[in-house]
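User: Run a structure prediction on this.
Assistant: Running it now.
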Amino acid sequence: MEQPFMTKNKVLVSEQALASRIFNKGYFGSFKDGKLELSLYEALYLKEKKELKVTNIKGKALTTRNFIMSAEKAEKGFWIKYCVFRDMREAGYILKTAFKYGGDFRVYEKGHKPGDEHAAWIVYALGEHDELYMSAFSSINRIAHSVKKKVIIATVDDEDSVTYYETRWLKI
């Protein structure tokens, strides 16, 4: 049986029984060309839950530390975003990437399925020492409003604790 393996920016699961179990358990990943493609966030979350073992492309098992180091190389700010991903998944939300919206994640209301429903929020993850300029904040809100989503700014402190701020348009 082929183990799930990490490419530069995703983890691929070829074994159909495992892929189906993972997808059906919490809408993790998406199927493409007969394989389940997991984001690095989804794969690390499942790895931490002991539901997934991941190898590198050569078949060598990756420790959690090696996985995180590789993910940080692939995506700047991976750990901050992962802290948000993990916190929201633990609270029962389903998250998918939001690159086309310029955000980090699309978040679905509890009980809503990706594909059947639209995401309610776009989440932007920041470290507590990161800066968010007013022009970027304005752009974030404009994009979200145009696609009928609310904005959540998720701030991760030095202890990996997450605080959420929701923003909305106010018509006066």
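DSSP finds five helices and nine strands in the chain.
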